[in-house]
Write a structure and sequence with these properties.
heterodimer; A: about 270 residues; alpha/beta; six-stranded mixed beta sheet; four-stranded antiparallel beta sheet; about 40% helix; about 25% strand; disordered N terminus; B: about 400 residues; mainly alpha; about 75% helix
Chain lengths: ~270, ~400
């Protein structure tokens, strides 16, 4: 079926096996049950049930329009789900605005188009959330921002404005901005899709480091190399439904569903 | 959270660019002249024609100002034009107010930006013209001296602030805030100087002073009305957005003149108060409707991602508006709002129709109604036009400055 997938996936390394064992015992931090969403008459999400364990890294794949972005945008209520339940870190995401605010401050998000605040310096972009939401004193917020900028590798850009940075640098600032809220979960919505090829790597490097540090991550991406290397679990969406999920060995060697196979053959 | 130190990126150091010789100045000058003045046969013709028209106009103007015109109508009536029925024995209040406001303008300019060559030229020309008119009458050398002293104060304030360190930080923020607050308070301060403790009554604010009082109230009041209106119109709650839309459409649908009559006749029964206060309310309401539309235009240019990012970092609706959306939207709406500010500045002449309010242009009408000056209406109106132009030009310059100062971090 997959004409070009000649490379055979590496057998499961020991470290990874240990990680899987630990993950199996970890509690669920994201629980979704029967989530559905409509845009007008168009059903964007169809009865999605997906749970994510603490420290787990889940990569969501699927053709455009398959609802994968909509799904992770529902997780911090940038979109409202119409049916089903979403519980994040024990908090039900519902009409209660306080719940929503709590969840939003525990869930960081990185967007395809970076969405940095163009009128604020890089520093201020990062400190704004901690200062206004977490009520962190200026000094501490600034210190935190500098630490995070060092972590994403651009401490010297603190006083610049977003427009003065390259795409890759902007996306790294966006990651630092999300991390500044010290979230328990990070959502990535096609973080490298708007980047030039030479900048994709620097963003993926930051994400790899983040994964290694034990962050719970949900990543929508088309970067198969990244998915294969970092993901604990891959999930395939199509036409708003969750079609198939499993480890990368399962996915790349022996996908069960016809649609998954078709998609992988096109993308690999 | 940061268990693993992130490897520092090695920086690539490039050799500096080779310095290449610039083209000689004479070549560049010739190039500029050719490109901008004589690019082609048609272009050359246009240059010559416009130069001819310009020369004729300039000659005509100079001839009129220095030879033909009889500035007596202005010099003899300068008190009437500028201050109208403001009590003569309180003149010191006028000069004090002017001095304070000029100082504040100087402070603000020194803090926010520098005065350029154009600004100095403008101050020299406008100031020179005013001094010329005041000295022309000869009688009161003191007014010229006071006026020059006020300009001196402007430069002193400027010189002090422009030397302050400008590195961003708490000191700079404090500087910006205090000067901004002082400038915002300049009109109230001036009014206190003019009116409190035996000064003029509200009705004695007259002539050019009245325009200078009404326009800022209209502009600032308009802005205060406009921001909630714009947000309301963009609101997803239908009742709010319909109410705001109705307000905007109704207010914009009738001319300012009509609303001034509302102030004169209808508001009198509704809220009462002094006519000048009712006029201020109407000006703010009117300007607010126009400015709201400008701000709405600004709001619409803010991409949805900005709202989403603001919410994703945990800001609530109010914080997102206040910190992320409005600052960007207002910056975009500076040019159209400056247009409305200039427009309302000139529209203050309309209060003349409310006969008991006598502003600059209305007082010029009275000046040329005198038998002695019946033939000097052109001089009187030229002077009025110039007075309006000077302030309008300043407003336009300030808006350009604001735009540039806010331009950092443009997309």
């Amino acid at each position: 079926m997959t004409t070009e997938s000649t490379e055979s996936p590496a057998s499961v390394p020991k470290a990874q096996a240990g990680r899987r064992g630990r993950l199996a015992e970890a509690p669920d931090i994201i629980i979704t049950k029967g989530v559905s969403k409509w845009f007008g008459d168009f059903q964007a999400l169809d009865d999605i049930s997906l749970s994510v364990k603490e420290h787990e890294i889940v990569v969501i794949l699927g053709p455009s329009g398959s609802g994968k972005s909509t799904f992770i945008r529902c997780l911090n209520r940038l979109e409202e789900h119409d049916a089903g339940r979403i519980v994040i870190d024990g908090i039900e995401l519902n009409e209660d605005v306080r719940n929503m605010q709590t969840i939003r401050s525990e869930v960081g998000m990185v967007f395809q188009q970076f969405n940095l605040f163009p009128h604020l310096s890089v520093m201020r972009n990062i400190t704004l959330g901690p200062q206004k939401v977490r009520r962190l004193p200026n000094q501490e917020a600034n210190q935190l921002a500098m630490e995070l900028l060092a972590r994403v590798g651009i401490p010297e850009q603190a006083d610049k404005y977003p427009a003065q940075l390259s795409g890759g640098q902007q996306q790294r600032v966006a990651i630092a901005r999300a991390l500044a809220m010290q979230p328990k979960i990070m959502l990535f919505d096609e973080p490298t899709s708007a980047l030039d090829p030479e900048m994709i790597k620097e963003v993926l490097d930051v994400m790899r480091e983040l994964a290694a540090s034990g962050m719970t991550m949900l990543v929508v991406t088309h970067e198969m190399g990244f998915a294969r290397e970092v993901a604990d679990r891959l999930v395939f969406f199509d036409e708003g439904a969750l079609i198939e999920q499993g480890t990368h060995e399962h996915f790349f060697e022996n996908p069960r569903e016809e649609r998954t196979r078709l998609f992988l053959s096109q993308i690999l | 959270m940061a268990e693993m130190p992130f490897p520092q990126k090695r920086r690539i150091v490039l050799p500096p660019y080779r310095q290449r010789a610039r083209r000689p100045r004479s070549v560049r000058a010739r190039e500029w002249v050719r490109r901008n003045l004589f690019p082609s046969l048609g272009g050359t013709l246009l240059t010559l024609v416009s130069a001819g028209i310009g020369a004729l106009l300039l000659f005509g103007i100079l001839w009129f100002v220095f030879v033909d015109a009889n500035w007596q109508v202005v010099t003899a009536n300068r008190w009437l034009l500028f201050a109208g029925s403001f009590p003569h024995d309180q003149e010191w209040r006028l000069w004090t107010a002017i001095g304070v406001v000029f100082t504040l303008i100087g402070l603000a300019y020194g803090t926010w930006s520098g005065l350029g060559r154009k600004d100095h030229l403008f101050i020299a020309l406008a100031g020179g013209f005013i001094v010329f008119l005041m000295a022309h009458g000869g009688a009161q050398i003191w007014s010229s001296i006071w006026f020059l002293a006020a300009i001196l104060l402007l430069y002193v304030g400027y010189a002090v602030m422009v030397r302050m360190p400008r590195e961003p930080g708490p000191t700079r923020r404090w500087q910006l805030r205090s000067v901004g607050a002082l400038l915002a308070l300049s009109l109230p301060i001036a009014l206190v100087i003019l009116m409190v403790g035996g000064g003029a009554s509200a009705r004695q604010l007259d002539g050019f002073i009245l325009n200078l009082v009404l326009a800022p109230v209209g502009i600032v009041g308009g802005l205060v009305v406009a921001i909630p209106l714009a947000l309301g119109r963009a609101s997803s709650m239908r009742t709010i957005s319909w109410t705001c839309t109705a307000y905007i459409e109704v207010v914009r649908g009738a001319p300012l003149l009509g609303w001034l009559f509302v102030a004169l006749f209808i508001l009198d029964d509704v809220i009462g108060g002094d006519l000048i206060v009712r006029t201020m309310v109407v000006l703010a309401i009117f300007t607010g409707a126009y400015m709201a539309e400008s701000i709405r235009g600004g709001l619409q240019t803010i991409p949805r991602g900005q709202y989403e990012a603001a919410h994703a970092v945990g800001l609530n609706q109010f914080q997102a508006m206040q910190l992320i959306i409005l600052p960007q939207a207002l910056r975009i709406s500076i040019p159209p709002m400056a247009g409305q500010a200039i427009s309302i500045w000139k529209d203050t002449t309309l209060v003349t129709v409310i006969l008991t309010l006598r502003e600059f242009k209305g007082n010029a009408d009275s000046a040329i109604a005198q038998v002695d000056f019946i033939d000097d209406r052109i001089e009187a109106y030229v002077f009025v036009a110039l007075g309006f132009w000077i302030v309008a030009f300043m407003m336009s310059r300030v808006s350009q400055r604001m735009e540039r100062a806010q331009g950092v971090g443009e997309r």
